[in-house]
Structures are given as structure tokens and as C-alpha cells.
Amino acid sequence: MSSTAAPTPGSGPPERARRHAMGLLARADAGALARLAAAFGDLPEAELVREPEIGTVMVRGRAGGAGEPFNLGEITVTRCSLRLAGGEVGHAWVEGRDRAKAHSAALFDALLQTQRAGEVRARVLAPLEGAEREKAGKRASRAETTRVEFFTMARGEE
After folding, report:
1. Can you tell me whether residue 31 is helix, strand or coil?
2. Predicted confidence band at 12 (pLDDT cuts at 50, 70, 90)?
């Protein structure tokens, strides 16, 4: 009898890749995403399934990262869903009140389901990943400057 669990439906590589892409789009700086959308050029028209709307969601936390979950508080989010002419539906949830960012993120999510997916990955997702890595590197570098090395000295007689 095998102890491995059966894969969860919807958790295969394409779903993980889409989840990763949606996360990048949601975390992206609004100005950077707007510049990438403008530079992308020929963006298709899309029918709004759910126009960008602002609401709140409850954020949950865990004590120590592994403890019991608790309600930390609410944050403002903007969500948007749209449909391309080919039937592909894009969704986005972004933190804050930026309707344009939510619309752009949903449009790129929809384009990732088309023949232009490679173009979106190269011209939008790759720069966003690079910016995210650079930001993480700067944060780690700043944290490294505050690190304190501790050591113990032993007395010779004890």
C-alpha cells in the first residue's frame, strides 16, 4: 500500500504556473504593471464579466507561523474578471484600490490562456520576477547589515 496521497484536482503544473503568474501580477508595483501594459502594444478588447470593484477581505495569521490561525484584520482589495473574444476568462485580485491594475492583471491572466502566453511570460512576467528578486535581494542585504554574531567564551578553570 502506497503512503503517497493522490494529487489534488487542479494542482498540476499548469495550475501552479497560473497561480504563480497571478501572484506576480497581484504583487507587482502598479506603475511597473502600467508601463509593461503600455509597452506590450496590441492588447485585445475584453468584455467585463465583473468590472473592477473594491471590497475587503479578512487576512488570517498564525502565531509563530505554525500556530493556530486567527483573524488578523481586513485589507482593501480590488477584483476584476473579463472575457476575451476567444472565450478565455481572466481574473485578478489586487491589494488596494487600483482598478486599472486589477483590469491589467486580469487581462494578462486571460492572455496567458491564449497563443500569446509565451509573449506575456517574456515581456511581462519575466520583468516582474526580476523586479521581485531584486527587491528581495535589497531587503536581505539591508537585514544582513544588522546581523549580530554571538559567541561564547569559556573560562579555563571551569
Report:
1. helix
2. low
Tell me if 84 is assigned to some domain.
yes
Distance of alpha carbon 10 from its chain centroid, rounded? 18
Identify which of 99, 100, 98, 102 has the alpha carbon closest to the alpha carbon of residue 90: 102
Instruction: Detail the DSSP E strand segments found in the chain.
Output: 46-62, 69-84, 89-95
Q: How far is CA 101 from CA 14, 62, 105, 154, in A?
A: 24, 29, 6, 59
Kindly list the distances between the CA atom of residue 34 and the CA atoms of 65, 84, 86, 104, in Å, as whole numbers in the listed order.
Answer: 34, 19, 24, 7
pTM of the entire predicted model: 0.78
Could you tell me if 99 and 82 are in contact, meaning their C-beta atoms sit under 8 angstroms apart?
no
Give which of 45, 31, 22 is closest to 105, Cα–Cα: 22
Please provide the size of the chain in residues: 158
Residue 22 has pLDDT above 80, yes or no: yes
pLDDT per position as a tens digit, 113-132: 999 999 999 999 999 999 99
Question: Looking at the 3D structure of the chain, how many domains does it have?
Answer: 1
In a domain, 28, yes or no: yes
Asked, for residue 153, whether it belongs to a domain, the answer is no
